[in-house]
Design brief:
Layout lengths: L1 H12 L11 H7 L1 H14 L3 H12 L26 H11 L9 H19 L6 H17 L6 H24 L3
Helix pairs in contact: 2-3, 3-6, 4-6, 4-8, 6-7, 7-8
């Protein structure tokens, strides 16, 4: 019994926590150096800037590995989960297309690879630059078909969020240029 309690407590203690300073890309990566390596690898593979990856994750999950959308009246509204808040169908599409069958939405490395892949598809299908955090986020949130239909146009809350994502990306980009010099 005691061994079980110790194992459960150890598992809870080792659960990833969001970075303490989510407004500072340098602090995020100082606290989580593996995240920097994973984000750079995704940038090299897919061409999506690290700051865009961070901005999307910040908006989607606040850097919480096990984030889920809020339930309304006890009903889960979406299958979105993890750092990228990817829904089941899109996550399965990613795993099939990339061959990364073991990818987990609770893995930061898999999440940034997913974001890189998704933004790459958005660029190829919709012509959205990978540096355009605002429109990439709208396509990410609404899906490629929703973006093409303009489903975001009457969602003021989503347009505000997309503007924030763009601001986060610009801020993170400026910070990353500075912390590399430190």
């Amino acid at each position: 019994m005691l061994a079980t309690i110790v194992l459960v407590a150890a598992g809870c203690a080792s659960a990833p926590k969001p970075p303490r300073q989510i407004d500072d890309a340098c602090a995020i990566f100082a606290e989580q150096p593996r995240w920097y390596r994973a984000a750079r690898q995704a940038e090299r593979r897919w061409g999506t800037p690290v700051q865009v990856q961070l901005a999307i994750i910040r908006a989607e999950s606040g850097f919480r590995h096990n984030a889920r959308p809020r339930a309304t009246q006890g009903q889960l509204l979406s299958t979105a989960y993890g750092y990228p808040q990817a829904i089941d169908g899109t996550w399965d599409w990613y795993r099939e297309q990339t061959g990364n069958r073991r990818a987990r939405r609770t893995s930061f490395a898999d999440a940034v690879d997913f974001i890189g892949w998704y933004t790459d598809v958005s660029q190829r299908q919709l012509g959205i630059s990978k540096w355009d955090a605002h429109n990439q986020y709208l396509a990410y949130h609404e899906g490629h078909g929703g973006f093409q239909r303009g489903s975001y146009r009457n969602k003021d809350w989503l347009l505000r969020t997309a503007r924030r994502v763009d601001q986060y990306a610009h801020t993170y980009g400026a910070q990353l240029r500075q912390c590399r010099r430190r």
